[in-house]
Amino acid sequence: MVFLEPNGPVLITDGGLATELEARGHDLSDHLWSARLLVDAPDEIKAAHLAFFRAGAVIATTASYQASFDGFEARGIGRDDAVQLLRRSVELAQAARDEMAGDGRDRWVAASVGPYGAALADGSEYRGRYGLSVADLAAWHRPRLEVLVDAGPDLLALETIPDMDEAEALMTVISGIGIPVWLTFSIVGDRTRAGQPLAEAFALVRDAPEVVAVGVNCCAPSDVSAAIATARDVTGKPVIVYPNSGEAWDAQQRTWVGTSQHSAQQAQLWVADGARIVGGCCRVRPADIDNIARAVAGAG
User: Fold this and answer.
1) pLDDT per residue over 91-143, tens digit each?
2) Is residue 173 over pLDDT 90?
3) 218 annotated ligand binder
C-alpha cells in the first residue's frame, strides 16, 4: 500500500462515521450503534462514506466498529445473517470508492474492528480491563475478523484499543491473517485508557509483520503529538492519528460534552511530527476532513 513507501504522500482518513449518520437524522442510541443501519438504511452508510471521500479522505473505515455476533443475536439476527451484514459493511465502503473512481485517485477500504467494550455499549471501551483473559478476547474477536477479511477490504483497522491485554489478543488473531493491519490505541496522556504506559503498549505490536501502521484514535487532540513520537520511536512503523474532536463521551447520558478542539492547524503539526495518516474520529465531520486535507496539501 502506498503509505508504506518511504517517500509516499501523507494520506487522509475519514472522520466520525456515526457522527455523520447522526447528522443525517439517524438515531443511533441502539446498542448496535451505526451497525444498526447495516440493517435499516445501508444506502445512508454509503452516502456517509461518499461525503468523506468527497471531502478529501482517501481511506474509508467501515460501519463494523460496534458490529458483533453477540450484538446482532440480541437483536434477533442469526449468525448467517450477521455474517452477511458484516460483509455488507465492507461492500458499502467499496461501492462508495467505486463511485469515486472516475477522478483517478487511489482510495482504500479499512474494515473497522472495534474493541470488545464497544459491543457492550456501556462506555467500557474507554476503560478496558473487562475481566476477560487474553485467550477469551482472542476467541471473541477471531470469528468477526475472519468474516471481515473474507469480504476483501484493503486492510483491517483495529481501532480504539484501550488495553494491552486486548492488543495482545488481537496480535494472536491476526498472525498470518494475510491482510495488512493498522492498530490504534485510545489513550489519555501518555497511557492507554486502562492506565498502561503507551510505550509498553506500542512495544506489543512492534514485531508483528501484519501491522503496517500504529498510532492513536478517539483521544483528545492535545495528546496526539507526544503519542506520535512514542509510536515512531518504539516501533519504527508509519504512524496514524485520528483523534476525536476533544469533546468527552458521557456514557450514562449517552451524549458528548465539552467543546471541539480539533483543527486543521493541529493536523499540520501532526504531519510535521511524523504522522503519515491523519484524520478524525467521533464528532469530526466531512467539513473538518476537507479542512485537514487542504491544510496537509498546503504543507506539502
Assistant:
1) 999 999 999 998 989 999 999 999 999 988 888 888 999 999 999 999 999 99
2) yes
3) yes
Dihedral of CA 279/256/125/43: which sign? Answer: negative
Rounded mean pLDDT, 208-222 = 96
Local structure of 146: helix, strand or coil: helix
The neighbouring-strand residues paired with 13 are 59
SS3 content of the chain, % helix, strand, coil (to 5): 50, 15, 35
**Cell numbers 509510536 correspond to what residue?**
231
Tell me which of 118-132, 145-159, 183-197, 211-225 is least confident: 118-132
Residue 219, marked binder? no
Question: Which residues, in sequence order, are bridge partners of residue 211?
Answer: 181
CB 190 within 8 A of CB 200: no
What pTM, to 2 d.p., does this model score? Answer: 0.94
What are the Cα distances from residue 79, in Å, to 84, 177, 285? Answer: 9, 22, 33
- Which helix (H) or strand (E) segment holds residue 181: the answer is strand 181-185
One DSSP character per residue, 265-276 reads HHHHHHHHHTEE
Would the annotation count 282 as a binding residue? yes
Adjacent-strand bridge partners of 112: 157
One-letter identity of residue 10? V
